[in-house]
Design brief:
142 residues
């Protein structure tokens, strides 16, 4: 809950600007960053597991973390808030932009993210929905 209190305001602001339900953003942040406690979140301020695909990174742009392979590079951000904005911009991409048509239907968003390939976990949508419902995160969507 401390994580939710810390990031609810930024999640709502991002929802207003980008149309991503705050509940989805908070649930993804909770899962992907282990409530802000993962090494990726603590060292890189990366709360959404956003990878770096650039072939010409400047020093400090990304770091290598062991994930699915030894070649997984993840973006480094100067703050968690910068990570939240990068996540919003990431979801504006071709692969995910159609989800904005779903409004604030967090269940549809959860299934849409999974279907579009956001995570490899086959239960990702169910995990997001369960977290949103258990913590009442949908209150931030209104």
């Amino acid at each position: 809950l401390a994580y939710v209190r810390r990031f609810a305001k930024v999640a709502r602001a991002e929802m207003q600007r980008y149309g991503i339900p705050a509940s989805i953003k908070l649930a993804q942040g909770l899962i992907e960053s282990n409530a802000g406690e993962s090494p990726l979140a603590r060292r890189n301020h990366n709360h959404f597991g956003i990878k770096c695909f650039s072939k010409h990174c400047k020093k400090g742009h990304c770091t290598n973390f062991t994930d699915d392979s030894h070649k997984d590079f993840f973006r480094r951000y100067t703050s968690a808030w910068e990570s939240y904005r990068a996540h919003s911009r990431f979801l504006e991409g071709k692969r995910y932009r159609h989800l904005r048509e779903l409004g604030v239907d967090y269940r549809a968003w959860a299934h849409g993210l999974k279907k579009a390939g956001y995570a490899t976990d086959q239960r990702y949508a169910q995990k997001l929905i369960r977290l949103i419902e258990n913590l009442g995160l949908d209150q931030y969507d209104h």
